[in-house]
């Protein structure tokens, strides 16, 4: 049902604009009441951004499942590359990215959710046995990985979704590989 509501909302946002589309409009297009809408999405922004919360939890789980002693940067690269591969398979992601960039309320909520995700990822890195990281370094490495993905998203969007997203991920992680990470234990 969440996917159907999201699809209806994205269609309305494309036709009318984000700010001009109300929750009532979305609920009506999805064949539900406004009350039902709020059972699925606490706020209108979450129709576009709802997956970010779940994604952060899953990324943290995948980091925890990586081999003990694996280089922190390699862990982030492998896990985030897998997520970028999933994103690349979804054409609606490009429309969502453009909508976020064009809508101040969405951009602000997206940044809040990304910060929450970054905290989850940093915690997952610190919880790994033998990581050799202090909290500052773990946060900085997570921020660098986020910057890599930001660059990938911009390049991919500028290429109208036609760029090789995985090649961009690999290039970004190679360019930003921190030279000062402690060796894994």
Walk me through what this model shows.
This protein is mostly helical and about 180 residues long. It has helices at about 1-15, 25-30, 35-40, 45-65, 70-90, 90-100, 105-125, 135-160, 165-175. The chain folds into two domains: about 1-40, Orthogonal Bundle (Arc Repressor Mutant, subunit A), CATH 1.10.10.60; about 50-175, Tetracycline Repressor, domain 2. About 75% of the residues lie in helices and about 0% in strands. Helix 1 crosses helix 2 and helix 7 crosses helix 8 (about 135-160).
CA-atom Rg in angstroms: 18 Å
Q: Runs with pLDDT <50, length 5+? A: none
* Strand portion: under 5%
Order of helices and strands: HHHHHHHHH
How many independent structural domains? Answer: 2
Shape estimate: elongated
Annotation, overall tally of beta strands: 0
Largest sheet: number of strands, sense, barrel closure: none
Q: CATH superfamily assignment of the largest domain? A: Tetracycline Repressor, domain 2
**Structural class, from helix and strand content?**
mainly alpha
Keywords: DNA-binding, Transcription, Transcription regulation
Protein name: TetR family transcriptional regulator
GO molecular function: DNA-binding transcription factor activity; transcription cis-regulatory region binding
DNA-binding region: 22-41
Keywords, separated by commas or semicolons:
74% helix, single chain, Arc Repressor Mutant, subunit A, elongated, mainly alpha, 2 domains, Tetracycline Repressor, domain 2, 185 residues
């Amino acid at each position: 049902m969440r996917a159907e509501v999201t699809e209806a909302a994205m269609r309305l946002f494309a036709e009318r604009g984000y700010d001009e589309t109300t929750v009532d409009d979305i609920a009506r297009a999805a064949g539900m009441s406004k009350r039902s809408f709020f059972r699925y999405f606490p706020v209108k922004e979450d129709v576009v951004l709802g997956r970010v919360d779940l994604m952060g939890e899953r990324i943290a789980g995948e980091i925890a499942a990586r081999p003990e002693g694996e280089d922190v940067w390699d862990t982030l690269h492998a896990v985030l590359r897998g997520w970028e591969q999933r994103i690349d398979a979804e054409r609606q992601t490009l429309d969502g990215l453009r909508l976020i960039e064009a809508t101040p309320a969405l951009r602000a909520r997206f940044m809040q959710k990304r910060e929450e995700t970054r905290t989850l990822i940093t915690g997952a890195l610190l919880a790994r046995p033998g990581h050799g990281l202090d909290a500052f370094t773990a946060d900085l490495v997570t921020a660098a990985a986020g910057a890599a993905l930001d660059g990938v998203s911009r390049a991919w969007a500028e290429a109208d979704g036609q760029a090789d997203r995985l090649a961009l991920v690999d290039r970004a992680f190679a360019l930003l590989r921190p030279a000062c990470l402690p060796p894994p234990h």
